């Protein structure tokens, strides 16, 4: 298991529009084997999970370790994870969330929680953030070496920097 990839996928899941199955299919674009299984029920369960997961990222943004850990532990109790060692060859052993009889929602929730729990333990809860660009509310996982990420995307970063530049220019012009 590449825990950073799973943690980043959990941020993408939280940011995804899951109001219809088409949104879930779009989220699953790189996992075509799951697309045929995606259902309205998965969307409903994942929307509920989005509401439960958002406070974890908000607590990470606030650098509230106790809240991040407490909320993740609570979610792992509500959504038990069954990791399994998988190896496509004997030199590539890694963890996967067990998928036997699991729905698409169960699989995605399990991967999200396992990835986030591992990330928080290995890199710290302050790696979870909420975009600083107004009015964006997207979340992200900060994998920068110096923990300096503030925006969910280059687009939001550019937009915020341009707005700040224009505000400074306007202030100089009116002074």
From TrEMBL:
Domain spans labelled Zinc finger CGNR: 127-169
InterPro entries: ABATE, ABATE_dom_sf, Znf_CGNR
Pfam families in alphabetical order: zf-CGNR
PANTHER family to which the protein is assigned, alphabetical: BLL6575 PROTEIN
Descriptive protein name: CGNR zinc finger domain-containing protein
